[in-house]
Write a structure and sequence with these properties.
Layout lengths: L20 H5 L2 E9 L2 E2 L2 H15 L5 H11 L6 E8 L16 E7 L10 E9 L5 H4 L6 H12 L4 E5 L5 E4 L3 E6 L2 E4 L10 H9 L1 E2 L2 E5 L4 H5 L3 E5 L6 E6 L2 E2 L8 H9 L2
Parallel strand pairs: 5-6, 5-13, 9-11
Antiparallel strand pairs: 1-2, 1-3, 3-4, 6-7, 8-9, 8-12, 10-11, 12-13, 13-14
Length: about 270
């Protein structure tokens, strides 16, 4: 077997079975979390999501395995973005090929500066529709081709991100973030049935029920809702809260609703 990888780096190279189904078939799940001074933000929620994804794909995985990988990759006082990848492992050829061993677990911490909030981003609508019935929409699987293609198309057109919509015409999510829409005194975010990924920060905000004095809830967001929004913002475990300045030709106030900064400070321990 020959391996040609011009971009390989000794710093990021490990012994790896090239029969791994994660590499060959995107047969696995992953999670990204924020590490601040040795503390993995919302650690249990991230572990739970990885375990839920592994169960959905039928990959045997123990909580202790994830905990050990996280602790080894993010030692005390470290900070950055922690990515944990779990694949079914190495196996034979074909979709139903037998796995020769247990799951493969990769954990890596990279630099990420959370001290400065991200600027507002202008987004376009992706030509790709989000399939709410797909396991890829409900779990963070390794199959991210739609997301990659949509983001690259947006950037090449002068935008910073893209929004996915469901076949029914409702807003689903951004390429790597959930979307919240402020309509008057209400803030709403798309339900799972419209293709929204159940993100860790999204779920945390929904459980709280409020951002400042705004009531937060989950409901379908139509295009007309989005175009009529006062403010729009994104959430994920690294960006935390990022304002959206516009959608296509429609512009929004490029600021976060009052209360987001307090939540951000609470998350990062400030």
């Amino acid at each position: 077997m020959n391996l040609f990888q011009p971009s390989s780096s000794p710093v990021h190279s490990v012994s790896f079975d090239v029969r791994d189904r994660g590499l060959l078939l995107a047969d696995g799940v992953f999670d990204t979390s924020l590490v601040v001074r040795g503390q993995i933000m919302m650690r249990d929620a991230h572990i739970d999501r990885l375990l839920d994804g592994a169960v959905a794909l039928g990959i045997p995985l123990q909580r202790s395995q994830i905990e050990g990988a996280m602790d080894q990759a993010a030692p005390p006082e470290s900070s950055g973005a922690l990515r944990v990848t779990v694949t079914r492992g190495a196996g034979g050829r074909g979709l139903a090929g037998e796995v020769s061993g247990g799951a493969t677990i990769l954990a890596n911490l990279t630099d990420y500066d959370v001290s400065v909030p991200l600027p507002a981003v202008h987004v376009q609508e992706s030509e790709i529709l989000r399939n709410p019935t797909s396991i890829n929409a409900r779990h963070k699987t390794l199959s991210y081709t739609d997301n990659v293609v949509a983001l690259r198309a947006a950037v090449s057109s002068g935008f910073g991100d893209a929004f996915f919509f469901s076949p029914g015409g409702n807003l689903s999510c951004a390429t790597a973030a959930n979307v919240f829409v402020q309509l008057g005194r209400d803030i709403v975010t798309s339900p799972i049935d419209d293709g929204a990924l159940p993100g860790v920060i999204r779920n945390w905000v929904l459980e709280r029920g409020y951002i400042g004095e705004f009531v937060v809830s989950e409901r379908s967001v139509s295009r007309s809702d989005l175009l009529a929004a006062d403010r729009v913002f994104l959430t994920n475990s690294l960006r935390l809260f990022q304002p959206v300045s516009g959608f296509e030709a429609t512009h929004f106030e490029p600021l976060l609703p009052e209360g987001c900064e307090a939540l951000r400070s609470q998350l990062i321990g400030r």
